[in-house]
Amino acid sequence: MSLRSLINVRIFLSVLLILLLGVATAVWQARQSVAKEVQSSINLALQMIEFGFAQVPVSSRHGSNWLPQISALKQARHLQISIAEPNKEPVEFMTQRIANAADTLPPAWFINAVQTSYFTEKYEVSMANGMITTIYITADPLDEISEAWGESKAFFWSIFAMVWVIFLAVNLVFHSMLRAVNSILSGLRQVESGRYDIQLPHFKISEFDAIAKEVNGMSLALKTAEESNQALARHTMKIQETERQTMSRELHDEMGQSLTAIKAMAVTSKQSNVDIPMVADSIIEICNHLAKVVRSMMKTLHPLSLAELGLGATLTDLVNEWGRRYANLAIIMDYDASLERLDKDVAIHVYRIVQECLTNVVRHAQASEVSVVLAKQNKTVWVTVTDNGVGGQASQQGFGLLGMRERAASLGGTFLFESVDGQGVTVIVQLPYSEDGS
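User: That's the sequence. What structure does it adopt?
Assistant: Structure tokens below.
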């Protein structure tokens, strides 16, 4: 069910409940009003009769000279008066009544709901001849019920008009809200389809405007992330091509030339007047050189010592190598031995992050000292690399930092880059800890 349908159904049920409560209230009030009005008319008639006969002595009560006292009651409403004398037919006197056409009478259900059991009051009059004449006063509430019906109809129509106005007002408000919701949903669908340049308009309703701003911020963040990922992918492919070119050149320059030299010496060794030990020593020297080249290329592709010797030894070898290559840079490493049980997939990321940090220090920091701290706290691996170089702005981060951030994010970790001009750079990486084989 749509939101509009749900709202309309609930409004209809609420209106129905209000009308039912209104009808019950109006009927109850009409019932009370009719009962009070009719009882008041009966009491008034009794008082008028008592007062009228009090003015006529009993000796004067004979024949029909006392009937004018009863005829005066014709001006009263809601009553039916009958006079019963011994051995005579009752004489009825109808009181004043409002003319009601058949189409103006209240509906039967309203009459049945409002009308109650009305008593007949009687008043006995002593006549001059000693006989007793009985006057019966019976309620006739139809006029009062008709008036109550007219008031109730006005009440019902006022409730209906009020509810209709509320219904229209609510629908207008929700029409505006649903239009904003549809606009937001349309924007989200476009974002889902990859159109991250979408920008939702400003909405008058503050809540929807806040949602639109969040969606716009999300679109901008997704667009930035997409551009960064595309740039990182291009950079990664460029690095791959560069590494392939470097490997191809080294294979050609080192391996090719060395193999050619070995082949030439092997051919020379077949001659009778050649110094075989000297040729053998040359071949051994060339093979040792090739072994160093191969180990260097393998370490560049993947540090084999990581699986053989562990993370601590591999990082120590990395730090020592950078120390030998850059004698003016003091590298201090603090390594937590409990990380030796670290999962190999996480360990290679730790190694690459430290390697990239040292590369950035050498290239950009102009530092004389760098600190590398690796520690385990609870279920988290902390990698902190700090230098005392010139520092740099976060906006100047290159692909190296972007790659480290992606490595951390791929493992569910966090990456923090802190830099102040003239006070060096601090890189803090948090990675989830998991033991090898777990």
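The chain is about 60% helix and 15% strand.
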